[in-house]
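Q: Here's a chain of 429 amino acids. Please give me its 3D structure as tokens.
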Amino acid sequence: MPQRECQGERQEVVRFLVAARQCEIEGLKHLLEVGHLVLSVTGLVHHLQRERGASNLFLGSGGQCYGEQLRIYQGAAIEAERDLRARLAGWLGQTRCPHGCARFFARIATALHGLGSLPGLREQVRGRGIAFTSVMTALNDLIRDLLAVVFEAADSAADPQISRALVALFNFMQGKELAGQERAIGAVGFSQRGFDDSLRQALLHRIDAQERSFEVFAAFCDPESRVAWQQVVDSPHTSELERLRRIACTRNISDVDGVEMAQTWFSRATYRIDAMKGVEEGLEARLKGLCESRIETAGLELASADEPAAWVDGAAQAIAGPFTTFFPNEATQADGEGQPLAAPLSGRSVMDLVHEQSRRLQAMEDELHAARQALADRKVIERAKALLMKHRELSEDEAHRFLRQTAMNQNRRLAEVAESVVSMAEVLG
């Protein structure tokens, strides 16, 4: 084959390799935008969690306490919602949709629909014209819809490090949400001066589910976040909360201590959740830093293709330039002063680039598998719970207890039992 034709083919090969790299950069830019949106979501979720707890304490005490705090928390949640809506405004003008955007946008639409019902709900709470259980259900559903936005972001991420960071953040947010539900349930129980079986079981379920979420978080987070979380676990406020948990789960509350203990519970639980917010902010900073770092590195590699010194073997060598940093094993020559020069791009080196790119992408896919498996487990568990709730008329807590108890009895993973439930439902139609 003539030399000119060989060079043309090599140039074409490397151009497609660079195009693949450019696609990665576009995906990373999209993830950075998603990361900014996730920050707004986490802020709103935090304020809604505080509003939910204060609403339950206000209603459970017959309006005796937390009226002013409730007003403050509602105001903060309204501001956070405005911030999220402002962030969302720019998304509708996008001309192209990266992978996973259809589900991502659908989740956002569901969350926005839920946010539309908040003004009426708040009015009912202020007038004490609604039961605490209805407030809990409404805000739990809304927060779940907001967390689903973060879940879809993690599920669509194609970069292993960023995917792991998103999985860690999502599971930590899920654990924090369960802690918020625990705070709200405890506030009701203490303010009513007693926990019936239903409230006590709901409390135990939230405590147990928190632990599982934090275990997944710890498996995927960075070392600094793991240390920060351990500091929260070891804090005096957590120890005091454990003492109040034991009281809630083992004995009735006296008429004298009820409201006072409710305020103490809410205060200790809030200290713990606010400390969790600090860990959450660290995870968010880690995610943002990863996106920016990966974009900068990939951009510098592509920019090096425009350097005149890279043109050694025609245009193909210039296009291959970005890969010399990523694939350091490529051969180099040196000039008279000992400075490295790019070697001529032979047919063999083009094949090396192709193989290296393939190996790199496969390594990324292998690393992504663990993160996606954690998300897949959660998907199948939620699906199994929904099936049990529909066909056996169970509550969500009861469906989860059924799956957990079955897993313990059969010595299997919870996700495996959930998969069996889903499979059986599909077989039976």
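Q: Can you summarize the key feature?
A: The radius of gyration is 27 Å.
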